[in-house]
Amino acid sequence: MSARSEVQIHPTAIIEDGAILGPGVFIGPYAIVGPHATIGAGCRIEAHAQVVNEVHLGEDCLVGRGAILGDHPQSISFDPATPSSLRIGARNQFREHVTVHRGAKEGSATIIGSDNYFMVGSHVGHDAVIGDRNIIANACLLGGHVVVGNRAFLGGGAGFHQFTRVGDLAMVQGNAIVNRDVPPYVIAGAQSQLFGLNTIGLRRAGIPPEHRDDLKRAFHLVFRGDLNLSQALAQAASREWSEEAGRLLEFLRASSHQGICRVRVRSGE
Q1: What is the fold of 203-263?
Q2: pLDDT in tens, 241-267
Q3: Would you name the residues annotated as active-site residues?
């Protein structure tokens, strides 16, 4: 039997009847895996971590010490008997004391993609949808129904109001208060303010210079010009844009519960 196929369970761990463990899973001291959990191949559940209720955990994930995945939503009216789930892709890391809650309505789910990194003490609320390759820094708090795209960086201590959206390759500064949508490719911080494009992130992501220039033009039209958002989007529809600028404009045209972050007004403007 190969090391990959062996399941290692510490004698103090509790694996309830009905739990499904894939090959190569490691379950550490005092960890708990509930009866409706499915743990993918190669996952590591460290000491005192809990995977409870209906959780589908993809392969090669880390659930750090004291982390809890799949517990009940933080809603006073929630009935614990409600069947809902938490669905997680592959190669995610949930560091110490991360909490991720399952869906709040019957048949609903909180969904997390692959290759995300959740740092110590971060939280994902019920029915959130998180894409791929995001970094969620220490003590970052995502409320229910928050949507995060791909390759975003959310700074430590930042708080996100329920139903807010965060676009691809966005960067949100630490301790930000986010109660409006953060468009893709931007830097946001303070209280739902935009500071400009995430130019370093764009370069690192391999976005070609001509596409970055087109993004700058789109950003200036929408956020730095004299037009309101509706007028700017109408004017933008009269020309062709690069793929990334098109995605920015598409994000801004989509329905929003919370509205869009706006550019910080500089002193003297």
Answers
A1: Udp N-acetylglucosamine O-acyltransferase; Domain 2 (1.20.1180)
A2: 999 999 999 999 999 999 999 997 654
A3: 126-127, 144
